[in-house]
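Retry 2 of 3 after timeout on previous attempt. Resubmitting structure tokens to design endpoint.
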């Protein structure tokens, strides 16, 4: 874990655009449209004495938490509001003695000692009565790992991570709530981080995040480093193919946005269960709309495929899935991918090629 460091003299952050006004009490220190800082993939953890902080990569929903007085707003990585789906977290944060802040963290739900991503997904669409029941039966935990605005209202994103971590540790030492509102472990010891990485994928963590201690918080930029045992990417579903001889979905066609904002076809996933097919087919058919892919589109039949397998149905680019892949060749997945899960918490425009371009360290 990161030991408490000596206090640092904080410089006043420069002024920023006006904050969004909540419905009750004061102003949020930062706009609700503030995007979380993101990460690039790498094959191994970066090294450098006193240069990096390592943290577990939590298997949950990324969340920016805003507070002003009794007003609380939770925002997903996509920018969509999450408060309706996690009322227990809103109530918890509203009850804190802290008057205002903006915190970066992860929403997780633990069931039988293990984090349950499916339990998070169940929150996003049911009726309010169902959400209330779930929030009581399986309350979410908010794991905090960064601070963007302090309780005094000062914006902290221009301060180096080392200063932000000191501030966060002090805040959480006073205001943390065991099992509910907690600070993420962190270390500057590469050996400890390597241990976390070896254990990743078997519990709460699915990898390790590395952040430069001297770097400011850069909203929306992929300036952190993430290392995972399994290579995964969030992709837009730009189209689908029917199964041969069937009117049910056989495979999903995956896309990523290029630097010009064009959606390029990058591969497919066909790991759909028979139980899922009927409902998924109806869901996809309701989204049929051209062109589907605005950049490189799926090709037609080849000498290895039938005329039927070359046909595909374009979709509005609204659905996001997380897939596991092994290799990338020429900006395409070399083989078929494994469908891991749907990601309704992520926005399609965030699915870019930067995810699959590994950082060379």
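Retry 2 succeeded. Sequence:
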């Amino acid at each position: 874990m990161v030991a408490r460091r000596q206090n640092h003299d904080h410089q006043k952050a420069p002024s920023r655009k006006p904050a969004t006004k909540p419905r009750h009490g004061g102003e949020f220190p930062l706009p609700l449209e503030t995007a979380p800082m993101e990460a690039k993939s790498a094959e191994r953890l970066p090294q450098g004495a006193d240069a990096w902080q390592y943290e577990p990569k939590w298997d949950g929903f990324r969340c920016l938490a805003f507070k002003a007085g009794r007003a609380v707003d939770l925002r997903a990585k996509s920018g969509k509001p999450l408060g309706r789906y996690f009322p227990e977290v809103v109530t918890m944060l509203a009850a804190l003695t802290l008057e205002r802040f903006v915190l970066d963290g992860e929403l997780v739900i633990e069931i039988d000692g293990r984090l349950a991503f499916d339990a998070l997904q169940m929150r996003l669409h049911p009726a309010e009565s169902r959400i209330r029941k779930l929030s009581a039966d399986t309350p979410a935990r908010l794991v905090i790992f960064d601070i963007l605005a302090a309780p005094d209202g000062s914006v902290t994103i221009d301060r180096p991570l080392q200063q932000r971590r000191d501030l966060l540790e002090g805040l959480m030492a006073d205001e943390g709530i065991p099992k509910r509102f907690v600070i993420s472990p962190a270390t500057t010891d590469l050996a400890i981080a390597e241990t976390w990485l070896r254990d990743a994928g078997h519990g709460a963590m699915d990898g390790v995040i590395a952040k430069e201690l001297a770097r400011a918080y850069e909203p929306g930029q992929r300036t952190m480093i993430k290392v995972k045992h399994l290579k995964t990417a969030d992709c837009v579903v730009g189209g689908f193919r029917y199964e041969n001889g069937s009117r049910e979905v056989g495979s999903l066609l995956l896309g990523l946005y290029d630097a010009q904002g064009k959606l390029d076809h990058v591969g497919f996933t066909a790991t759909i269960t028979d139980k899922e097919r009927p409902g998924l087919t109806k869901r996809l058919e309701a989204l049929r709309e051209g062109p589907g892919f605005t950049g490189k589109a799926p090709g037609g039949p080849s000498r290895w495929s039938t005329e039927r397998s070359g046909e595909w149905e374009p979709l509005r680019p609204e659905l996001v899935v997380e897939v596991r892949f092994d290799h990338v060749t020429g900006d395409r997945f070399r083989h078929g991918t494994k469908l891991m899960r749907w990601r309704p918490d992520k926005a399609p425009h965030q699915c870019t090629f930067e995810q699959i371009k590994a950082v060379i360290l």
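Attempt log closed. The mean pLDDT is 87.
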